[in-house]
Amino acid sequence: MKAILSRIKVNKNEAIDEIHSIIMFFVPEGDAYPEYLYKTNIETQFGLSFASIKDDATLKKYIDTIEKNIGKAHDINLYDITFDEMTKGKFKGYKYDSYYSDDPNKVYSEFHVATYKTRSDAIFDRISLICTICFQGEIVGVKANGEEEVINDPKRVFFEDVFVDDSAKYNITIDMLSSVSTEFIKHKVDLNVIRAGVLIVNKEEFSDCRCVHILTGEIDSYRKRCNEVRRINSSLRKKIFFWEDPEPLPKLNISEKEINYLKVLYLNETKFSEKSHEVRLKSFNEAFGIASSSSYDSKELRDYLIKESSKRLQKYKVTKAARIKVIE
């Protein structure tokens, strides 16, 4: 594709002196707007090794060479990419609320990208950049109706077709539930295991149940009362006065639904301990304001972005492809 180099911008405050970053601005032939940005560096554009430029005079020579090509056609692709397209209609744009943002209320909805890559790879690169910002909790998505939502789960927003919802495999089946008896829950189960269990799925089914700490507290008291009654019924007095009726066992005031709720918690912790731990860690991070980058979900996404980026780059002879040349 042909595009006209309209201007360049040199980043003179680059922290890494060996690389001299520049931004090349392109426009379609016959148009002065919009401008399409291509971020690169002097070293790549002239096939130099890093640290090749030793002084300002040499740097100026290379910059002057690029500036002489302003107004000339170059071989580069220009793409208009919308946030609506990137999110498959979930959001029309986003706000970048950060110390580094010039205008935290500005809604970014369209991007003009110049690149040597294909359109799909250009979209992936833009999504990867936004995901990196999402890990810091700084992206607020704006929906078509104007509603705003912090994007703290970029997998769901950008890669729902890649990361398939696997919650179904953590469902508690009837057979699993039947394998845990009510008597086991009432008399034998380790209450700490139940307390540690996190309800992974089907939360709505137990919305009217009391919290686990109240229920396990009642079971603990019930067990103590049962032990006391057994002690009394097996005492010497009861043996001597055998005609006295034995003390009745106490009743546990917990509904069948709440018993099933405790069974699910027990199964979550014993059958799906890894997932249970993941959910607890995520809840802990959210409670204490720890960045989502420390969670399992973001690690999985980070690993995917790195591997996918590497795979996509293999299609290009990167160094040569990144040199944007004038079309003679």
Query: Which structural class do the helices and strands define?
Result: alpha+beta
* Quaternary structure of the protein: single chain
Order of H and E elements:
EEEHHEEHEEEHEEHHHHHHHHHH
Approximate shape? rod-shaped
Number-wise, the strands total 10
Strand arrangement within the widest β-sheet reads 3-2-1-4
Helices, by number, come to 14
| Low-confidence sequence ranges | 291-296
Mean pLDDT: 85
Could you characterize the architecture of this molecule?
42% of the residues lie in helices and 15% in strands. Mean pLDDT is 85; it is low at 291-296. By secondary structure, the chain is of the alpha+beta class. The protein has helices at residues 42-45, 56-67, 83-86, 119-134, 154-158, 174-178, 182-188, 191-196, 212-233, 236-240, 256-271, 273-287, 296-313, 318-321, and strands at 2-10, 21-27, 36-41, 73-75, 77-82, 93-96, 107-108, 110-115, 139-142, 148-150. The chain contains 14 helices and ten strands. Helix 11 crosses helix 12. The strands form three sheets. The chain has a four-stranded antiparallel sheet. Strands 7-6-9-10 form a four-stranded antiparallel sheet. It has a two-stranded antiparallel sheet with strand order 5-8. A hairpin with a 5-residue loop joins strand 9 (139-142) and strand 10.
